Structure formats: structure tokens, C-alpha cells
Amino acid sequence: MTDERFFEEYELGSTRRTTGRTITEGDIVLHAGQTGDFFPHHMDAAWCATQEFKQRIAHGTLVFSVGIGLTASTINPRAMSYGYDRLRFVKPVFIGDTIYSRVEITDRRPHPKRAGHGIVVETVTVTNQRDETVLVCDHLHLVERRVPLAAADNR
Amino acid sequence: MTDERFFEEYELGSTRRTTGRTITEGDIVLHAGQTGDFFPHHMDAAWCATQEFKQRIAHGTLVFSVGIGLTASTINPRAMSYGYDRLRFVKPVFIGDTIYSRVEITDRRPHPKRAGHGIVVETVTVTNQRDETVLVCDHLHLVERRVPLAAADNR
Amino acid sequence: MTDERFFEEYELGSTRRTTGRTITEGDIVLHAGQTGDFFPHHMDAAWCATQEFKQRIAHGTLVFSVGIGLTASTINPRAMSYGYDRLRFVKPVFIGDTIYSRVEITDRRPHPKRAGHGIVVETVTVTNQRDETVLVCDHLHLVERRVPLAAADNR
Amino acid sequence: MTDERFFEEYELGSTRRTTGRTITEGDIVLHAGQTGDFFPHHMDAAWCATQEFKQRIAHGTLVFSVGIGLTASTINPRAMSYGYDRLRFVKPVFIGDTIYSRVEITDRRPHPKRAGHGIVVETVTVTNQRDETVLVCDHLHLVERRVPLAAADNR
Amino acid sequence: MTDERFFEEYELGSTRRTTGRTITEGDIVLHAGQTGDFFPHHMDAAWCATQEFKQRIAHGTLVFSVGIGLTASTINPRAMSYGYDRLRFVKPVFIGDTIYSRVEITDRRPHPKRAGHGIVVETVTVTNQRDETVLVCDHLHLVERRVPLAAADNR
Amino acid sequence: MTDERFFEEYELGSTRRTTGRTITEGDIVLHAGQTGDFFPHHMDAAWCATQEFKQRIAHGTLVFSVGIGLTASTINPRAMSYGYDRLRFVKPVFIGDTIYSRVEITDRRPHPKRAGHGIVVETVTVTNQRDETVLVCDHLHLVERRVPLAAADNR
């Protein structure tokens, strides 16, 4: 479960795919309870039946949290998550849908200020059981370099 | 709890501040259980005692989910969340910290393709009980316009 | 979310209606876990199928807790809940039912001993998605007076 | 766990005492999640530290639900709960307090309309580990009579 | 709920049967969250649909924990659980199945080293709503003797 | 996360060690809720303070479920869990203890009836942060053989 990897060892274009997770009614109930978001879109089946999707939809933050959690299988002691860019909800996730995450290394760039670290971007694509994309985002990791950049290289 | 508002009615620079939420050990346990992320940074107090922060830290997705959940107090039937930009984890959140969200309308722009909608950007700043910023992000909402743009205006 | 209101400002007959909440199987499981009430009426679907209602029913304390929770949307720093009268379970709530609470101010009376406070009674009526009443109760609040009663007025 | 008992067999003044239950921080978090009541009195330790009690307090509905759950140890197939009277919150319950319920049969009366049933009232007194009363209520049960009242007796 | 019983008072061949518990989807979600076991057999309905059983199955440790929990109705202050032998998963448990435990005292033997205690073996048989056995195990209890064995008797 | 391995490929004496998991108060609360075991040893801190250990202890089934869950990191599609032998609770686990599992392949034997499968025994030793053993058990797996035994070999 631990896989030490330095910045230089991340390979652009390499991909991995996670196991799947069915989003259950209980997940939505627990996520509402954790976040305090009890909007009727998630919690009121009767009202949802009168709306466009005819049913409750998972919270965006739930799909995101589970989609990212699926990718957390290997610990790299040289890396830490420090943010996300361009997170988009592409399609709704309904109760009973199963989601999977695909991760691709899409960027490797110097850190603007730290010569000893670089930024590795994993683009995460979350799909459902019909292989439709439901969420995409860029996950940014701060990763230690094996060899720090010479000061001059670091812009 | 419902407050209908069209794109034209969002005011740049307006702000609101939420109630607070103490992040408990139980929240971390539940979030690990929901996401499947059992990394020792969150779940192994003995190992954490040997690390830089000396204690367990909340998952990034937990701080984000609760921070956003705090802002979900008023339903606007004319708006829907469709994503986030520039989400950054600024400082760790520890067990017992209390977080608050401040929301500011920082952008209102035409939607690139839909004349009937615009994009409203809420910049969310999550702070702890010492008023230190722990997370920032831009929350993007797709909001119906009261008056659709003429085709010519919509670039 | 904060709305300061003194005793004198509660208006007899004023009403409000909450958003809805679907009672899920997961809610019953969690409530059993929280209360320790694992009676077969809530937990044994096979046995329930042989009984009058043919299905599991929500705990009374669950319907009550959620029904009251729905009303907890605005904090009044001048009021505190101190009890309930005439709580009655009128109809069973089944898995998948959606409940709503209607609140009406039905009484405003002096506190028997405190000149600085009065008692405001909110009658809470919990209904399901077929608009059938499932639970009623009187929620008693101890509310600060803007102007304390003169001793002589306090009966 | 099943103890069949008819109305006639409830003895006025008989009492029983339950096992205890420590109210944990996790119980408050779960109850907030179940009910949607995230008032700062329960969820914001930093704010609570500035208030009278200096700490978070358990939800009234939590103390009530657990206090009643503690009494649900024996199933009587001839009885059903149908409500509560005079529920009062006497003292706050804090994280780490342990509560116990004492039950006393305080009333046995005819049902106003049903000759085949009577009403049995259990007065429930919930105390903490310092034997202070924190909650009281009258729990009303509808219990089948072994021998229905003659019509004339039923007023 | 407390029933003091010494080693000498356990009767070989005596049996008891518990109430039932429906295993819900939420139970599986919570158990995955508690144990960190997110194997697709339990969590991925789409994948399960392609496998032998066509549906998700409950974790073995869940069926065991609930099956044993059902037997925990009476506290004997003279006994403590110290292990299990021959725990076997006989049939899968699916979402919606209801399980029951039958307990039989199948052995009473001296403790190999402690003259003051004996070992009582409860054979626990967990069945589903079709009376099929799903799990069996021998539950070993260390129980105080009313009369300690003379040293010579204790082999 | 998938690692296909046949019976022949399990190596006697090979070991692995899992990440750690701190057992929190919330875990005990959730496990009580899942199993219905609310014995005061786990749930009543005031009573526990008067007992030998002076504090609440984790349920045996909780330590077992988490200890086994920690080992569930790699899916072998050729193997299935079918039981446990000699499960023993060696020392109590308290709130705040961190547990780890060590797994050793201690036996590989023919299945008594199936020529196509063998039994692989993993001895699981669960230790705490002081490296004291708290639980041991033998986990039995039914594993497909790459080459079925000839009928004559299978006794």
C-alpha cells in the first residue's frame, strides 16, 4: 500500500482505473448528515418525482468525495494533495448508479516557488455503469523531487 | 428557505457568513467510511504522533464537503451548482477545529453557449476558529437569466 | 439563519411550512443504532410481512426527531425549547414516505414564575406525502420578554 | 424478550431501571445528521465556549430518543406506544454524561372510546451519572384488555 | 437484563432463539465504512450482476457481528466472552434477508489452567428467513465457578 | 488491487503487515448500533470507571471486524473466505488504541472433498500500538487449484 515515488518518476499519460462503488440511498442520507445539505434534490423523493430527473440525485460533494476516495489506494510518502482545478459535474448520479474513477497523469510542472518540489496533475474522470462521464477534475499533488532544481531552473 | 433569484439579481461583492461546525473525530471516521480513504494521516493516531503535525488531520474532501455544506442554506430554484475552480487546501484541519465559510460573489459572466443562463461565481473561504484560512475555492453556479441575452450579445 | 425575536413579537396564528424529508430504510437502521430500539416492528421485514401493516414502520422517536428537526431552520437567541405536550402518533410512517412539518403559533402565555419570560407554544403537525397527519405535538418555548411583566401582571 | 401482558396486569407504582448510556460526541454528530438540526448549541464548540454552559449540549430530541430507547427492552405484543405527555427538559446533557431511565407505572385508565383497550402511563425519568434528573415525560401506551369493558363501564 | 449465572448453572442442551434482523443495504455500507473492506462483492452492484449470485452479498464479518449481537440480550456478570471456534460461512446473506440466531449450550469443560473458572460453549446457528443456515460458530465463554475445583480435579 | 493467485502459489511462512487503525469512541458507538450490543462494558463510561479496566472496551466483534478489514487490501478472484478457527481475544482494546494486523500463511492443505480447491490458512495477529497482541485467529480461504488433484490424491 505504500509506493514511494518522486516527481521525476511520474510518467505523463500513464493511467489507472479503480474498483467501482454503488451509490446507495444510505450514502446520500449519510452525506446529508455529514454536510448539513438537506436540499430536497437529495432528500425529498416526493418532490423529486415532480422534477426533471424524477428522482433524488447524489450531492455533488458526495460524488466528488467518493470518486476521489476510490483513487486513494496507494500511499506515496513523497506526495501530498493540495488542491483541485476545473471540477465539473457532467451528469447527475442517481441512487443505484455505480461509479468508477480513471486517473491519468496529464501534467508535470515545476512548482512556482519551491525548488525541491514539483506539481503533478492527475486528471480524474468519474464514470457510471453505462460508461458515461459524471464528473471530471484535475487533482494537484505537490511531489518531492529526487533532485531539487537548480535555482536558475526554477521559474 | 427558498429564495428565487435570477442571474441579474446577483450583486458583485456581496458577502454572507455561515454558522460554524466543529470537525469531530467521528466526522473523520464517517468520512473515511463514506469515501474508503483510510490513509494513516486520518486514521492512525499512533503514526500521526510521529509526523510533522503530531495528530490526525481531516480529509481534504471532508473539509471541502462540510465547508460547502455550510453554505447550502437557501434554495434558489433558478440556479444549479455545476463545478468548482481553484480549490486549494491552505492549512490542515485538526480534530476539534471549528470551521466557518464566508461566501463572496466574485464574478458574473455570460455562459459561453447558453443565452438563457449566466455563470455566477461564489468564492468560498473556509476559516477555522483562529480565523486562519484553511480552504478556498470558486463555486460556479449556472443561473437562469430573467431576460435572455440577444444572440449578438452572447460571446 | 439568526432571527432575534422577543415574546411580544410572536403572532398567534402565524404559520410556516418546512421542506420535506423522505424517511429511508437507512434512517430506521441509524435510529435503531442510536437508540438501541431494535424491536422487530422496525428491524425484521420478514416478521412485519405477517403483521397488520405488512412492512416495517419508523420508530415514533424517529418521526418525532426528524419532524422537529425540519423546523430547526432559524435560531432565535431569545428562545429555548423546554418541552413538548400532547405528542401523539396518528399514523405509521413507512420506508419511502416523505414527511413535512407545519408549525402554527397556538398559544402565548405568561411563565408561571418568571416575569422576564413567556411561553410560546408551536403546534407542530407532521404530514406525509399524501397530506395525512402522522404526528402532532405542542412544542413549548421559553422566550425572553422585551419588557418584563410587572409583578402584579404575572399570574 | 417478549412478555405478553394485558391492561389488567399492569401494576400501579411498579418500577424498573434501565442500563446506562454514555452520550458521546459521535451521538450528537449522528443525531444532527439524522434530524438536520445543526444549531451551534450542538455543533460549534468554539461558539459554545463563549456561552453559559461553556460546551456543546445534546439535542433535546437525542436525550429523549435515547432515554426512551433504553426502556425498549421487552416487547409486549398487547401494547403499542401512542404518545407522550408533559415532556420536559430539566437539565442539559453534555458530551460524556451517562444517562439512565427509571420507569414507573403512574396511571391506568379506560380508553375514552375503545372498550377493548386501556391506557397505561409510564412516567419516564431520565437521570445522569450524578443522579440529577435531565428529562421527564409520561409515555402513553394503548394496551389490550383481557376482558373488554361492558359498554356501560366505558366512560 | 442482568442474569447472574455460575458455571455450574449452565445446562447442556438448553437453547434460546433471538429476535430477527433484516440485513439492509445500509448495513453493508456502514460495515464497509467501519472495516474498510470495500471489495466489489459488497459494494459494486453492477459488477455483482455479472457474477454467480447476481447481487451484492453481506460481509462475513457483518453477518457474524450481527448474528452474535442478536444473542447479547442478557448480561451475566460471572461470564466473559473469550473467543470463537469453527466459525463457518455456510450460505451468502443478501440485502433484504432477515437473520435469526439460535444458541445451544453444547459443552461445559474445565478451564485448562484456572480452577476458579470453566469454559461454556454456546453453539450459535444463524439462519435466514427461509430457515437456511447461513453461519455457524462455537462461542466460548469463561465463566466463574460457584465452587472452585480442588486442585486435583483440574486437568 | 486485483492479484490473481492459485492455491499452488501461496507460500508457507510468507507474511505481510497492514496499515493501522485507531479505534475511536465513534467506532464503538457505530458498532453497538450495527450489532445491537449495548452492554455497559462498551456504552456506559460511568459504570466502566468502577470496573477492573476503568474505561470502556471495544466489542470483540469490532476488533475482529476491523482487524480482518485491514487485511482486505488485495482481491484474489481465485479465493474466497469461508471461515475462521481459534479466534481468541487476548487483551482488551480501549478507545484511542491503534491496531495493526500481521498475516502469515501458516497452512496449505487439500480440501477434504473438492479436488479442484485447497485450503489456505492465514494466521492473523492483531496488535496494538504497544505491540501487544490483542486478537489472534486463523482465517480459512478456499482457493482454486491451478491443477486439480487426481482423484487418488484427494483424501
TrEMBL record, chains A, B, C, D, E, F:
UniProt feature coiled coil, ranges: none
InterPro entries: HotDog_dom_sf, MaoC-like_dom, MCH/BMMD
Protein name as it appears in the record: Dehydratase
Residue intervals passing through the bilayer: none
The MaoC-like domain, residue ranges: 13-114
